[in-house]
Design brief:
Blueprint (H helix, E strand, L loop, with lengths): L10 H4 L3 H11 L2 H7 L6 E5 L3 E7 L8 E6 L2 E10 L14 E10 L4 E11 L2 E8 L14
Antiparallel strand pairs: 1-2, 2-7, 3-4, 4-5, 6-7
Organism: Mucilaginibacter myungsuensis
Family: Belongs to the small heat shock protein (HSP20) family.
Protein name: Hsp20/alpha crystallin family protein
Length: about 150
């Protein structure tokens, strides 16, 4: 088996049909394909305090109605389904691109999480989820006297 290294600088010079590669470059560099080929799963920050677990998802441009939070056993599923489009029947469009985006993030909750006390809010493009800890899982702190 022979391996051939691809050299992007010489691809048009070495090709039998130099314009053939240019056609594919122009098709796949179009914003129509670029917008749909990128993964749009939001980044998450997970932190812990003495009595809560905190999950923050960066999801700008959405409404709180777009989110669905489901708890299945100890797995918290956060999903979004967003459809945008122009339904104006009075215009004669030469190009009309509808947008559809959906994603799911799943988080396995620890045994110390109280699944009955989960609160969520969406403010300024950030979905914040607070998961309370069970009373027996909270850290007990006390001062120990030295004798």
């Amino acid at each position: 088996m022979t391996l051939v290294k691809f050299n992007s600088d010489n691809r048009n010079n070495a090709s039998l049909l130099p314009s053939f590669n240019d056609v594919f470059d122009s098709i796949f560099s179009d914003t129509f394909f670029n917008d749909r080929l990128t993964c749009r799963v939001p980044a998450a920050n997970i932190s812990e305090t003495e009595d809560h677990f905190h999950i923050e998802l960066a999801a700008p441009g959405l409404k709180k109605e777009d989110f669905r939070l489901n708890l299945d056993r100890n797995v918290l599923n956060i999903s979004v389904e967003q459809r945008t489009g122009n339904n104006d029947q009075h215009k004669n469009y030469s190009k009309c691109e509808f947008s559809y985006a959906s994603w799911v993030r799943s988080f396995t909750l620890p045994e110390s999480a109280d699944t009955e006390r989960i609160e969520a809010s969406y403010t300024d493009g950030v979905l914040k989820i607070d998961i309370a800890k069970r009373e027996e899982a909270k850290v007990v702190r006390r001062q120990i006297e030295i004798k």
